[in-house]
Amino acid sequence: MAKRRYDFDEPKIQRYLAEGRGAGQFVSYQPWLTVHDVPSSGRVSRIQGWHTGRIHHLLSDGETGLFLMLDWEDCVADIREQFPLDRDVTRQIAVEIGVPHPRDNHTQTDLVMTTDFLVDVVIDGKTHLLARTFKRVEDLDDERTIAKFEIERRYWTRKGVDWGIVTDAELSAERIQNLHWLHSMRSLDGTQVPYDGYWDDRIDTFCTHLAAAGEMSIKGYCRWLEQTLGFQSGEGLTVIRYLLANKRLFMNLDRKFDPLDKMTSLELVQSVQPDLPRSA
User: What is the mean pLDDT of the chain?
Assistant: First the structure.
């Protein structure tokens, strides 16, 4: 019988190791699993990382939401998704706690376990490692899931790494929606413009005249820019999204963006405080 696409056997595991899966940092890191390697129980995503400059492979909506929150934080230096654990160590832990090691149901090969995210966080000039795994609250009552998490927890404890589970209950739906909306706007490179520095001029004009917004709505201020200062349709909102994405403008991310809100709901700022997702 031909091997199915998603099966794992020893030759496939050795091939992944030879390819450098799970190795490297920043732009050179290769996740152990990509969106092409596993049947996902949710929507998969491929997202360009702000901190790493590479495409990240997210295997569910929950992973995508957690990634967006991590990538938003200035204290995060590197994010390695689908990070593989040393199989010899996880096998040993499974024996110690008396639970079966995860294996491929078809080939009966012990799988390489992974942690959803291994994150480098820089605080006061020192780099700390965080290991975070996403899981839906409704799945936390499953005995097999709990056994796998216990292997994972003990693995990272032995390495002195802060490990934890982040659930959907801890991810603000409004914040995730806003971060989705902003993520592609970190850069305006590649957009068609009439001359070099066009967006710099638009941004300077937007900020210079911000005081004139008064009690205008966001939509009203954008319309005023079009009618008074020659902005093209949609450019005001593009500038707002760019400034928000680059943290030069602040909004309450836990509240859905509404163009009918007053411009006073947006604030020019120098920086924001980190708000890393907490583990359960």
Answer: 92
